[in-house]
């Protein structure tokens, strides 16, 4: 897994429309025009924790915010303000394992198609090099 951090919590938070306590990405490991690796350390104040387990909804939100971070960082590199985006659809989500408090997860997003503000991405989430979730999302930028 990625170990070099490009951006940490505060800088990542500035690129996302979500704000505490709803931020589910706190580090950026790598970025290209067609991919991104983002991470989250699951801390005890996370709103998606239940009995020290990170819930499915939190995992899906982490995946979605990883996509949002790609857009936010893309606009940041161009010195432009990122538009708000929305999840258009979620497809084929498979959750194999739920992380626990103090675990750090990483999601790799790969852009499959992008046209007219609509982006289709493949997302795979890992915990300690083990794939724990995967799926596809379609996002739409607000006009």
Give a structural overview.
It is a single chain. The chain is built from two helices and eight strands. By secondary structure, the chain is α+β, with helices and mostly antiparallel strands. A hairpin with a 2-residue loop joins strand 1 and strand 2 (about 35-40). The radius of gyration is 14 Å and the shape is globular. It starts with 8 loop residues before the first helix and ends with a strand.
Record the SSE blueprint.
Elements: H1 9-15, E1 27-32, E2 35-41, E3 49-50, E4 53-54, H2 56-77, E5 85-95, E6 104-115, E7 118-127, E8 130-141
Antiparallel strand pairs: 1-2, 2-6, 3-4, 5-8, 6-7, 7-8
Mean pLDDT level: 91
Largest sheet: 6 strands, antiparallel
What is the CA–CA distance across the termini? 36 Å
Give me the Rg, rounded: 14 Å
Shape: globular
Which features would summarize this protein structure in a list?
6-stranded antiparallel β-sheet; alpha+beta; two-stranded antiparallel sheet
């Amino acid at each position: 897994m990625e170990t070099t951090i490009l951006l940490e919590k505060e800088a990542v938070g500035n690129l996302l429309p979500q704000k505490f306590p709803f931020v589910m990405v706190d580090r950026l490991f790598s970025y290209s025009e067609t991919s991104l690796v983002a991470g989250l350390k699951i801390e005890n104040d996370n709103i998606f924790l239940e009995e020290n387990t990170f819930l499915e909804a939190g995992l899906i939100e982490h995946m979605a915010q990883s996509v949002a971070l790609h857009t936010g960082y893309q606009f940041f590199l161009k010195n432009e303000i990122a538009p708000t985006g929305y999840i258009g659809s979620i497809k084929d989500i498979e959750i194999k394992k739920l992380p626990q408090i103090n675990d750090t997860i990483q999601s790799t997003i790969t852009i499959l198609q992008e046209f007219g503000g609509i982006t289709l991405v493949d997302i795979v989430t890992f915990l300690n090099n083990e794939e724990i979730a995967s799926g596809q999302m379609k996002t739409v930028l607000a006009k």
